[in-house]
Amino acid sequence: MTTPGEHPKSPMEPVDLPPVKDTPLRRLQARVDEAVQAHGPGPVSAAAVRMLTGRTTVEDVTSGLVGTLSGDGEHFSTAATGALVLTGVWHRTALAAVREATGHEDAEVRAAALTVLSVRADELRADRAVDRALVAAVHDGCGDASPEVRAAAATALGELAEGGDLALVAPTLNVLVMDVDPELANAAELALTRLADRLDHPDLRASTDF
Containing H/E element for 172? Predict the structure, then answer.
């Protein structure tokens, strides 16, 4: 609707989009981009693994790499930061550390590791790294004490599970769809939708008839 004297915008004119929401993850991604530009993807992914596993070196600090990735430390722990960096830059050698981190004592790190597995599902599949053991480890996260971890695990199952895993994962996701935590229930529903689309199993979509 236009006000008197105002000309309506032409369809060819640019539309004013809402501003992009500033979040800790978005700020972290900007720092990853900065680090990759300064140091290269290989050193950044290697440093991320060292941050995740608690093995940062003096050189990581003196080079400014850890400082760049950590920023002001406002939100994520060092280990969780290391994991989440791997959503922005990846090397296949990081998988072992990420798999181990799904059992980390800190729920924030467990959730971050599961998020990495979700984001890197295509690369993992291309490397033939998605196996029953990996899917089972992710599935275990659906029983975690932390709702955040359960939601991250549900999302990862949607990206990683294959046809042979459905007997294990589909019942679990259908139970999580009924969870009282709306974010967890939504993550499970989206995971089922993702599986239905990826595996051409429309029957997997969560029922909305309660």
Answer: helix 166-176
